[in-house]
Amino acid sequence: MLQAQVFLWAYILLFFPASIVAQGLGVNWGVIASHPLDPKIVVNILKDNGIKKVKLFHAEHDILTALSGTDIEVMVGIPNHSLESLSEKYSVAQAWVKANVTAYMGKKGVNFKYVAVGNEPFLAAYNGTYNNLTLPAMKNILKALNEAGVGKDIKVSTPLNGDVYITPTYKPSDGIFRHDLADIMNGICEFLHKNNAAFIVNIYPFLNLYQNPGFPEPYAFFDNDDSNSMDDNGVKYRSVLDANIDTLVAALKVSNFSDIPIIVGEVGWPTDGNIYATTKNAKKFYNGLLKRMTKNEGTPLRPKQYPDVYMFSLLDEDLKSIDPGMFERHWGIFSFDGQPKFPLDLSGKGQNKRLVGGKNVTYMEKQWCVYNKAASNQKDLAVKVAWACNNTDCTTLVPGASCSGMGIDMNASVAFNMYYQMANQTKAACDFEGLAKIVKRDPSNGTCRFPIMIKTIQTTSNSSASAPKSSRSSTFSSSTSHSPLQTHSPSPSSSPFHSPLLIFQIFVGIFTIWFV
């Protein structure tokens, strides 16, 4: 009897995942961080939470090695700045496939499912830079995959933004592709249809809310009543995500490609850096999304099958550009150290379950850098905080963020500590001419958390084009009425330095009282 019980439990542990997730659920894994988490730890996070699909923005040797033998389905990306060489020279595509795909395949290799060529290459703000490069690059990559004998198993597509389609009447059912992209989109769709590949689209309901003061907040989420819905010839849309998906469905139908499957390549909700970017709202959004996926009822124009969805994102990235907004570094459902931010039931059943966090994460010393009120040169505080914030991550200080409104002492300490931690806790990084000091007691207070940095390893890339400027291009809603439409700004540099706008906002929030 005992042997039978042992066998039963062994069978369960071997053949059932640690956690059940909604069908078709995946996650984006970006690495624009000062201290990236060990890929082996991240892969264990995926496995422990039952996540079976992951999307990478470019090929990283250490990440692909960690994914080898796991059977996790991988979509690997190619950054936009590689499109020109890939489109012009087939040999470049051959070399890329050899170095980043076939080199990791085999009995215990990576389970590649897609190569994502480019990332939102048709953004209006790119002024057509990649319009005539993307499809030729896709064709060359597919040709190289076919030549390597893996083209039937690995699909080729390109993640596009919602600005490639519009709806002139505000209704999703009247969706069409943007007029200036009509011929290009026809070629892309013909390629996808011929090769049984999906149309990948990135959609961000949060940005509809962020960019439009009059946007109805409930419409950014799910399961709303008719007062917060869009009527389309009697069909009620209660979420901007569903309306956006169906605008694409309509555009595909008009172009005679109504059978192309759709994948939502990026969708998520940030947790800091803006009044709407909170863990409460993120949990609400994801719970609604996962419930929709679990029901699998589809959308009004494509019923019975909800698209596969890749959450954005797995981890926070503290070197992402903040040009789109101060929330850009806080999209993760896990913090930078792989710890869950809020309870989330990935099965979509709405249980108050806690995600499994990273294990065996190695942290630096348990010490922090804070403002020294006893220093004699207090008049220099504003200048020193400005310098710290211009060289570290102060996005938690902006109005509405987790550390805002807590007074001069607290905000100066946040700036000094973030600089100190990102500088690997070197003693010289906590001086600021006597205005800062090292303490052993955690200064965290309420929602304002003072992190301790992790020890990290440097990941290695196989591709000379492996360092994208941004792992997610910003997408902004153009109007409340045209909720499925989005306009955009170009992918900015991933420099850790902040824009003058952030410094201005910080000083308005921190130092106005000081000088009054």
Features:
globular; two-stranded antiparallel ribbon; single chain; 19 strands; 2 domains; disordered C terminus; TIM Barrel; about 525 residues; 9-stranded parallel beta sheet; alpha/beta; about 15% strand
Structure characterization notes:
- This protein is α/β, with parallel strands linked by helices.
- The chain is built from 13 helices and 19 strands.
- It folds into two domains: 25-334, Glycosidases (TIM Barrel), CATH 3.20.20.80; 368-439, no CATH class.
- It has helices spanning 2-15, 39-48, 61-67, 83-88, 90-100, 134-147, 182-194, 205-211, 240-254, 279-295, 381-389, 408-422, 500-515, and strands at 25-29, 53-56, 73-78, 111-117, 155-157, 159-161, 165-166, 176-177, 199-202, 230-232, 235-237, 262-267, 298-299, 302-303, 308-311, 368-371, 436-439, 475-477, 486-488.
- The strands form six sheets. A nine-stranded parallel β-sheet has the order 5-4-3-2-1-15-12-9-6.
- Strand 13 (298-299) and strand 14 form a beta hairpin.
- The chain is globular, with a radius of gyration of 24 Å.
